[in-house]
Design goal:
146 residues; mainly beta; Chitinase A, domain 3; six-stranded antiparallel sheet
Amino acid sequence: MLIGLAVVGGINMSGSGATVLPVVSAVAGEVPTISKPEGSAPTELTTKDIIVGTGAEVLPTSTLTVHYTLMAWSTGKIIESSWSGEPATFPLAQVVEGWQKGLPGSKEGGRRLLILPPSMGYGAAGSGPIGPNETLIFAVDIIGVA
C-alpha cells in the first residue's frame, strides 16, 4: 500500500523582506514535521489548511479534541507536542486568541497551520517554555468537534 505525502508551505513577499512560511507534512494520523521558518515572522494571524477535513466544522463555541505541535519562530525548535501522549480536549473559547480566531472553519480530520503573532499568543509575558513576544507556529490536527 502506498501512502502519499504532500508538503505544503508558502512564501509571502509582502513588506520589505520575504517571509518563508514553515513547510508542514500532510500525512493524516502521523506526527507532523515542520520546517524551520525563514525571514521575518508574520505580524498578523496566518492560517493554512494542510489537510482539509471532511467532518464536523469547528465553530467558535466548539469543544475540540486535537493533537498539536508547537514551534517557536525565533529558534525553529519544537517547544511542545501533544503527540507524545493523549490528545488535548478543551472549549475553543478558553484558549489563546490565535486559536479562537484561527481554527473556526476548519473541519474534523483536518490539519491546520496556525502562525500566531505574540499579541494572539502569550504576549510580552510568555508562558513556561514560550519566551516573551514569541511568534508561535502550530500544526493542529482536529480529531473531534463537539
